[in-house]
Amino acid sequence: MKLNLTKVVNGCRLGKIKNLGKTGDCTMDIPGCLLYTKAGSAPHLTHHTLHKIHGVPAMAQLTLSSLAEHYEVLAEYKEGVGKFIGMPESLLYCSLHDPVSPCPAGYVTNKSVSVWGVGGRVEMTASKFMAIQQALQPDWFQCISDGEATCNEATSIKRARKSVDRSLLFLDNCLKLQEESEVLQKSSIIGVIEGGDVTEERLRSARETAKRPVGGFLLDGFQGNPATLETRLHLLSSVTAELPEDKPRLICGVSRPDEVLECIERGVDLFESFFPYQVTERGCALTFSFDYQPNPEETLLQQNGTQEEIKYVDQTKKSKTTSCNQEMTSFEINLKEKKFGNSVLQKESDSSCSHISECIFQLSLQTFITTSLADMKKHWTP
Amino acid sequence: MQGPELIQKAQGLHGFMNWPHNLLTDSGGFQMVSLVSLSEVTEEGVRFRSPYDGDETLLSPERSVEIQNALGSDIIMQLDDVVSSTVTGPRVEEAMYRSIRWLDRCIAAHRRPDKQNLFAIIQGGLDADLRATCLEEMTKRDVPGFAIGGLSGGESKGEFWRMVALSTSRLPKDKPRYLMGVGYATDLVVCVALGCDMFDCVFPTRTARFGSALVPTGNLQLKKKQYEKDFRPIDPECDCPTCQKHSRAFLHTLLHSDNTAALHHLTIHNIAYQLRLMSAVRASIVEKRFPAFVRDFMSTMYGDPTLCPTWATEALASVGITLG
């Protein structure tokens, strides 16, 4: 794989990653996003409906949390997870966790990391982890790491240091196991940058991880609510400054368009695209232009007209849906509102819900892909 | 603005759904059975009470047709007085005669007979005399098609097939016969043999949402452990997108996750199964080998002819098709 930078403007990197995939002939644009999946499929969408969307990302994100417990099945299948899920042509990145469902903290040890599937906790040592990856055969996979330094309010230096030490140890063990695996020669390990909110530890993590033969870097522990990312942006810049230019930088847990843009300005290349899914789950649809508005209140007035109540960027509008109890953002409209004249969504009805979710999700994913990233790049290319 | 007025503004149901093919709407009659505790029937119409806000709606033959006119569907159904097939006594007779009167009111109220086809619905429960009376009366009206109603509830299959056969024997040969609420694959094949043309049923899509895939030998409960490592498609002969791309093992995995995509895959397959089945039925009729098709279908589904359900064997025998 080869990353070519076309230009760098205000910290934003524009370029292409070439020679990707098993046959080495796939390309990805950066900045870019990965297709979010649950149990190996885009949420709510079949292959047919997914491909009605223009510009489906070349690389899909699989989560180990949804696949680890099916290790035996995949091992017996032998032909890799891409073929198993019906996406043989797609590039695949396997992350540890599902960004939408944060997992309980306190289960990382010096020897193992855990993920949570439907059936409960799956504990993985380096060798079990690598055995699972051998069965999956993804193009890229996140190395097991200690991502819990930022789980509590204040990271102690000691805890931050431990997260870096453990992650480097895991990385070295996994790299060694990869050398011994023929099947995984075509896969790239993504090294994980840890260190909590402690600057020296973050920089140490970046420098040390960069010394290893990883395919790219995952910036872990910067996610949270909008306020927490805000405070970590400075740290993010410092971290990416330590990383080699010619390897991709991924970040996890960041998917809102405004946050994506902030991270791009600080040297991040690839993002997860779970935001459309969260918007769908609260019955909303994404509607935003690619013009990044410095005055969000003004935009909302334009969008909604003055007769509607004025929604400010962080106004809370808690929805009744279960998994995504986050607040509605300024990038979306709430389809349950009477003004949209859709009485079907007024009542919760099991059988109609999945079809409606399917339609909304498709719409939102389309909007997210085309407006948040693809069109932005037109501003940069000469 | 809600309801039919909203749909009318959106260029009818076809425009609202963006569906360029045919649409059939029911009249609301079945809800007299499914929502019987929330409804009250009088000569005027059926009054429904909303369980959400206590609001009452009167659905009369006129109102039902008015709504269906606004929706603009290609086939519309009369409002009939429907009773559950397990009900006996004078209520069945009352409902049968009232359905005839309501048919006439629907015909009178229909504003778009040139664009929308109003079908009558034969009632009479499981009583041969009542059903025969209903048939005699309703066939005097000039409607473009007839539905056979009041069946496919909780009645025995023995009574069911006899009422279907009675109905088809007295309906005109040159107009469609629409058997409402059917159904399972076996029922479809048998009722085609008995002279029915059109069917509707929630079964294939509902069973899909519970993880069940329809196949020529019955169904596969894909959530079960036996499919965990089954890397074959649901049906190797099926050309639907699900069978083209996915294995039983993958669908099993997906069904055990919270991704609704699994339900979509199965829904698509089950609809394809139904369409393929009816297409095969039609081809066998055109090619004059329908009885052989039926024998083949039954032996695939049940194995031995003696294992075929008794009612089906009897029903087929009544039209000259013997199994093995």
UniProtKB/TrEMBL annotation, chain A:
Pfam families according to UniProt: TGT (PF01702)
Keyword set, alphabetical order: Cytoplasm, Membrane, Metal-binding, Mitochondrion, Mitochondrion outer membrane, tRNA processing, Zinc
Gene3D superfamilies membership: Queuine tRNA-ribosyltransferase-like
Main location: cytoplasm
Membrane topology reported for the UniProt record: Peripheral membrane protein
Domain tRNA-guanine(15) transglycosylase-like: 13-342
InterPro entries: QTRTD1, Queuine_tRNA-ribosyltrfase, TGT-like_sf, tRNA_ribo_trans-like
Compartments (UniProt record): Cytoplasm; Mitochondrion outer membrane
NCBIfam families, per database record: tgt_general
Stated role: Non-catalytic subunit of the queuine tRNA-ribosyltransferase (TGT) that catalyzes the base-exchange of a guanine (G) residue with queuine (Q) at position 34 (anticodon wobble position) in tRNAs with GU(N) anticodons (tRNA-Asp, -Asn, -His and -Tyr), resulting in the hypermodified nucleoside queuosine (7-(((4,5-cis-dihydroxy-2-cyclopenten-1-yl)amino)methyl)-7-deazaguanosine).
Matches recorded under HAMAP family: QTRT2
Subunit structure: Heterodimer of a catalytic subunit QTRT1 and an accessory subunit QTRT2.
Protein family (similarity comment): Belongs to the queuine tRNA-ribosyltransferase family. QTRT2 subfamily.
Protein name per the record: Queuine tRNA-ribosyltransferase accessory subunit 2
Naturally occurring in which organism (per UniProt): Bos indicus
Higher taxonomy: Eukaryota, Metazoa, Chordata, Craniata, Vertebrata
TrEMBL record, chain B:
Keywords for the protein's UniProt record, in alphabetical order: Glycosyltransferase, Metal-binding, Transferase, tRNA processing, Zinc
UniProt EC number: 2.4.2.64
UniProt xrefs under InterPro entries: TGT, TGT-like_sf, tRNA_ribo_trans-like
SUPFAM superfamilies named in the record: tRNA-guanine transglycosylase
The keyword Transferase is annotated on this UniProt entry: yes
Record's keyword annotation contains Glycosyltransferase: yes
Pfam family, one: TGT
Gene3D superfamilies: Queuine tRNA-ribosyltransferase-like (3.20.20.105)
Residue span, tRNA-guanine(15) transglycosylase-like domain: 2-301
Annotated protein name in UniProt: tRNA-guanosine(34) queuine transglycosylase
